[in-house]
């Protein structure tokens, strides 16, 4: 197989004993491929973020809830956050115990709260009215609260979850109301949490966010944990040599803040983080096939099976994903050429990469869209009645293993009632 610009996957030995072209032959196209070693490495990096003893990494499975990957996270000693009963359900299937899971709820019914209560899973509520709903059905119980101490960050306005323009969290000014409700319903506030948003590349905002949630913590006695949220970014522009988030520096600064707080607070409270993207983004590559190449009014369109039903991020957030080109035959590309890579969905916005300078692409080439392990498959859909792809894991011995089957036509009609 010829890899024309495959430095990233090669450096990681991403495909182990196989190749993208063989994988597509064996499992079909498009195809999500994950690498176990990359996934495990990222889990370990974050577990070692600080020296502070009571430190816990909760994998935010919304980024990727494939059962096999969740099992790897569990094996690595991570705990989990959940956003819905569905996430709780699969987390328990993956081996996470009730006490390993924090249900970070947002605008949920009392039935959904009951789902977690019945399973002894701690709920974090994110408004005064949700705290009241919870108090009514679980008076005397434990609870956590998500605060919005005013700091936000993220790669797009749609994913900034702290600060003044977001639906999330209880405002600091509502702390007196929180205290009244805790008393009224005899609730025990075991922890507080926040999430400033998704994807920061410089640790300043995270530290700022951590300090502001610690200020909120000082308002409450006997907290067992403080959860500072996720958002740790990865470099999506690797082919342009984008640098990594400096975890060592962030870890050192955070460590200092945590130790100082614990001393002042007078207890070795547990600190949690809840990363999704950092754990899983770089362990996933999406393979697709080139089915047509054409010139329309001076633009070269490379037509593939990578529609936005398969990967939504470029269309939803204008996100950049690097693309590698693989070829089964040994035909070198003549030159680099700007192309627009599109999918097979009937919308003109179905563009995965615009004006991208890549080695000349030929019919039947395989494209590898990098860094799609997070918010890739989990945001895929059956739009246009297309089948969601299969998922394959390259295990630690370099061998591929199917970890989710491709949808079938029968899957598309399963729920219909005639
Ligand atoms: N905790 C909470 C409460 C969250 O809402 C999120 C993400 C995380 C943790 C994990 O954030 P991470 O470490 O992955 O940045 N679909 C978007 C990202 C949405 C993030 C939603 N919340 C994307 O594709 O960029």
- Structural class by SSE content: alpha/beta
Assigned CATH architecture of the largest domain: Alpha-Beta Barrel
Ligands and ions found: ligand LLP
CATH class of the largest domain: Alpha Beta
CATH superfamily placement of the largest domain: Alanine racemase
Mean residue pLDDT: 96
Oligomer: single chain
Quickly count the domains.
2
Morphology: globular
Number of strands: 19
Major beta sheet summary: 10 strands, mixed
Describe the structure.
- Helix 4 links the parallel strand 3 (55-60) and strand 4 (79-82).
- The protein has two domains: 2-34 and 282-412, Lyase, Ornithine Decarboxylase, Chain A, domain 1; 36-277, Alanine racemase (TIM Barrel, Alpha-Beta Barrel), CATH 3.20.20.
- The longest helix has 19 residues, at 247-265.
- Strands 1, 2, 12, 13, 14, 15, 16, 17, 18 and 19 form a ten-stranded mixed β-sheet that branches. It has an eight-stranded parallel barrel with strand order 3-4-5-6-7-9-10-11, surrounded by six helices.
- Helix content is 29%, strand content 24%.
- It has 418 residues and is an alpha/beta fold.
- It has 13 helices and 19 strands.
- Helix 4 crosses helix 5 (85-94), helix 7 (128-137) runs parallel beside helix 8 and helix 9 runs parallel beside helix 10.
- Ligand LLP binds at residues 60, 62-63, 81, 104, 159, 161, 195, 198-199, 229-232, 274-278, 313, 317, 374-375.
């Amino acid at each position: 197989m010829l890899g024309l610009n495959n430095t990233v996957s090669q450096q990681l030995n991403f495909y182990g004993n196989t190749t993208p072209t063989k994988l597509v032959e064996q499992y079909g196209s498009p195809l999500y491929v994950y690498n176990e070693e990359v996934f495990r490495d990222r889990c370990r990096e974050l577990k070692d973020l600080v020296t502070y003893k009571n430190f816990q990494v909760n994998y935010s499975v919304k980024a990727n809830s494939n059962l096999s990957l969740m099992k790897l996270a569990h094996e690595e000693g991570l705990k989990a956050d959940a956003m819905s009963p569905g996430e709780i359900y699969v987390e328990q299937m993956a081996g996470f115990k009730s006490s390993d899971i924090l249900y970070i709820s947002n605008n949920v019914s009392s039935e959904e709260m009951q789902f977690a209560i019945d399973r002894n899973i701690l709920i974090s509520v994110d408004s005064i009215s949700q705290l009241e709903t919870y108090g009514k059905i679980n008076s005397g119980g434990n609870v956590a609260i998500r605060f919005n101490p005013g700091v936000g960050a993220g790669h797009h306005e749609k994913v900034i979850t702290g600060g003044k323009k977001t639906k999330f969290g209880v405002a600091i000014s509502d702390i007196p109301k929180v205290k009244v409700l805790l008393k009224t319903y005899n609730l025990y506030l075991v922890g507080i949490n926040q999430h400033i948003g998704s994807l920061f590349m410089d640790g300043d905002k995270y530290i700022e966010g951590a300090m502001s949630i610690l200020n909120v913590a000082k308002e409450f006695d006997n907290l067992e944990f403080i959860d500072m949220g996720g958002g740790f970014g990865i470099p999506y522009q690797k082919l342009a040599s984008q640098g990594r988030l400096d975890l060592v520096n962030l870890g050192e600064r955070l460590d200092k803040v945590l130790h100082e707080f614990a001393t002042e607070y007078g207890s070795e409270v547990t600190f949690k983080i809840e990363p999704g993207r950092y754990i899983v983004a770089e362990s996933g590559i999406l393979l697709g096939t080139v089915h047509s190449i054409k010139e329309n009014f001076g633009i070269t369109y490379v037509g593939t099976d990578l529609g936005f039903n398969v990967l939504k991020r470029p269309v939803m957030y204008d996100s950049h994903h690097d693309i590698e080109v693989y070829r089964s035959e040994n035909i070198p590309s003549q030159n680099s050429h700007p192309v627009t890579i599109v999918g097979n969905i009937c919308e003109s916005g179905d563009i995965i990469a615009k004006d991208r300078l890549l080695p000349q692409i030929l019919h039947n080439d395989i494209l590898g869209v990098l860094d799609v392990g997070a918010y890739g498959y989990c945001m895929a859909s059956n739009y246009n009645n297309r089948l969601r792809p299969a998922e394959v894991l390259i295990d630690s011995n370099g061998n591929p293993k199917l970890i989710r089957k491709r949808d079938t036509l029968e899957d598309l009609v399963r729920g219909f009632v005639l």
